[in-house]
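Notes from the 1:1 (GR / supervisor)

We went over the backlog. Supervisor wanted to see one worked example end to end before approving the batch request, so GR pasted a single chain during the call. The sequence is below; no edits were made to it. Supervisor asked that the structure be written out right there so they could see what the output format looks like.
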Amino acid sequence: MSRALHRAGATFVVAVLLLTTWSLAAPRPAAALDPFTGYLMAHFTGESATGEQIYLAHSRDGVHWTDLNNGGPVLLSTVGTRGVRDPALVRSPAGDRYWIVATDLRIASGTSWSDAANRGSTSLVVWESTDLVNWSAPRLVNVAGGIAGAGNAWAPEAIWNPATGDYVVYWATNSARNGVTKHRIWYARTGDFRSFTAPQLYIERGGTQGIIDTQIVEVPNSVGGYRYYRASADGHITVEASNSVLGSWTTLGNLSHLGISNGTGGGNVVEGPMWAQFNGRNEWALWLDQFATGRGYLPIVSTNLDSTQNFRTHSDYAMGGNRKRHGSILNLTAAEQSRVLGRWGSSVPVNRIQSYNYPDRYVRHVNLDVRIDANVSPAQDAQFRLVPGLAGAAGTVSFQSVNYPGYYLRHYGFDFRLEASDGTGTFAGDATFRQVAGLASSSWTSFQSYNYPDRYIRHYDYVLRLDPVGDAQGRADATFRVTS
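Structure output shown during the call:
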């Protein structure tokens, strides 16, 4: 072989290797994902003690929803304000990585809306996963810290931008600009949801009109004439369109003809627009949170997004037991759906815990204290789900309250309380027990502490405690039956 041919061959091999390496490293387009078969919604529920956390719901048809994890929160924020709202679910183009990005805000802690808007957190809370079920610890990213006078960072969203090869993360910040203080939409770019570019102004309405909630959907094949559509809460629910995430946008109209607005137009006042395409067809739902009346989300649907006049109301839908506040919807492949339902989809029966030596009495919570009582009212105060132990040990259980999802029986100073899980290892250990043969009767049950294995759940003067058990009275007090 001549030297010229040798060099040409070597060059060809290098080119092939480089092309192969690039092909392996570059993310596959979203269109290369397996067909979608279901839907996953991330949301929060409101300003209750555990309402400002991450909840999930599942649907097979896109309009009828079932709460996952028995209606309890799936992820808890242990950073910043220790509360999250407005979660956005993000999938990588290759479908091999996921993020949840949420507002760092907890109104239930006593924060006023004025303080939250003007002196609130300028960070977002981020979780990361490779499979949608195992999530990293939450972390804070201070996206709005570079905005002069920033008062907050609310309602984040993120979308892959093929033009720049990274994600555009956008959110609302309240700050002064040109002498006017109001909410505007800002954006930053990121490739990993850890490091971000400096914030840039994205959307600003005229005069004093603010804008908070904006969500963009990418439309395959540019149905309606555009690749991207966004809906924003800016007094109306304004719909715009573009062929570029960071390009110019064309206003298509609002929903005033349906009697729907964000306040300026009156009628049914809504917020939190949330897009979802129906699997397998060119039809989209724009979900709107009827926060003013507390009725929760409703969908309006369209098969052609080129005009807001094409939207119509859709009455056949069900939202499940939890109230669903501003969130996002992710279309699921069969593999993703199987993993999610395998982790959070099974329904755990509702049980009562009956006392062995006072069989007319059942374990119940009252004012978050725990005791045994007869004739419990409301009945749900004595109802629990025995879920896999929060500490993760095989064969252990935790007691989740039925009427306070996300709250568990835990010992503290060897006394018992009903408390919301804070996500810590200490709480998990305190709320985890081994279900063993009854100390007073093997046909009944006793509950051994996971982190204090020499102690058992028992009642004393009808109050639940965690104690060592050494006599017949103690054995009887520490024996229970799990009943329906």
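Supervisor's comment: DSSP finds five helices and 34 strands in the chain.
Batch request approved.
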